[in-house]
Amino acid sequence: MPTSNLDAEMSEYDEARRVANICNACRYCEGFCDVFPTMERLIDFDKSEIKFLANVCHDCRECYHACQFAPPHEYAVNIPSVMSKVRVSAYAASDDRLGQLIKLFSKTIVCTMIYPLIFILLGYLSQKDLFWESYDLASGNFYQLMPHENMVVIFGTLGIAVLLIVAARTKSFHNEINKKKIISTSADIYQSLKDAVSLKNLKSSGQGCTYPKSKQSRIRSNAHHMMAWGFMLCFASTSIGTIYHYFLNLEAPYMYTTLPVILGSSGGVLLLLGCSILLILKLYQDRAPTDSNHDRSSIKFLLLLFLIAFTGLALLILRETVWMGFLLYWHLGLVFSFFLVIPYEKMMHVLFRVVALINAKKVTNES
């Protein structure tokens, strides 16, 4: 790792260690979320423990607005900002050569514009005669524009590679933060999954988190739920479409009344709504507890999901027009970008957070 990156990373962990020690001495915020009860039971606050705490943190920011030592106090305690810095470092895996390579080719403008444009250009050059043709459902299908075998090779290979990297990184993260090698109980796992799915740590006493400003609101957790359910419905649509293709010998595109279309369109609408709300909230958020790098990563993640949902719905609506080819390759280029950034970007927070919550339950129960 370059010296400048190493120094920056060490300063992030040193700052996190400093504020954690102050928080442990104060303990005013111990009832806000799972971070503080877990923090009280840790001793060293070494790099692995700080990374552990950072991924338990849901960035609700309630502790910042309640803290008597927050800026402009000389202690300058800012848990949300410092934990966000650590999470970005954890996602990026800057000491990983593959991560560095992917980071180089995963800038926001590259993911949202360059890769889709490359797909559109390649699609046009390979299918000049068909690219601007219109189709009806009875005679035309997506695979005339891009053969099914090509889709399987490109996205199947990339998908398997992504799954392997994600699994390896999740296992490595678990091993790093579970230093005592405590075995999780089924009750710990169940409660942690329940807390993760329900976003318990974004709801405080039920009134919601202090986001985008200091007033408590449920809008952020509701938007997250829209995104999560939208993503799962789209995944279910793709899975059922695969069953239709391989086991029922039915090729896309499907009629509006079929299950893949109903699930996919419902998921796309939820994704559009959830991403739009969260992107708008970014414009109005309090900047003080925010880390700019974490914010950029979040915005890229939201933009990609928004554009994937938008192009997917547009493709559904305009699939019998001359725009089908353009929209198909635009959509596939965005999906390719999303796959590429999963292992080293914001998407990793899902698995890292679940693992961290499970370990938090073990730490608190052990004590």
Kindly describe this structure.
It is a single chain. It is built from 15 helices and 2 strands. With 367 residues, it is mostly helical. The protein folds into 2 domains: 3-92, no CATH class; 97-366, no CATH class. The protein has a two-stranded antiparallel ribbon with strand order 1-2. A hairpin with a 5-residue loop joins strand 1 and strand 2 (216-217). Helix 9 packs parallel to helix 15 (349-366). The protein starts with a helix and ends with a helix.
Protein traits:
mainly alpha; 2 domains; 367 residues; 1% strand; two-stranded antiparallel sheet
Question: How many DSSP H or I helices?
Answer: 15
Give the uncertain stretches in residue-range form: none
H-E order: HHHHHHHHHHEEHHHHH
Number of domains: 2
| Cα-to-Cα separation, first versus last residue | 37 Å
Radius of gyration (CA) equals 22 Å
- Fraction of residues in β-strands: under 5%
Give the rounded overall mean pLDDT.
Answer: 88
Please sum up the structure shown.
It is built from 15 helices and two strands.
Question: Secondary structure elements and their pairing?
Answer:
Layout: H1 3-26, H2 35-40, H3 47-56, H4 62-66, H5 79-92, H6 97-104, H7 108-126, H8 128-131, H9 148-177, H10 186-198, E1 209-210, E2 216-217, H11 219-247, H12 259-284, H13 292-317, H14 324-341, H15 349-366
Antiparallel strand pairs: 1-2
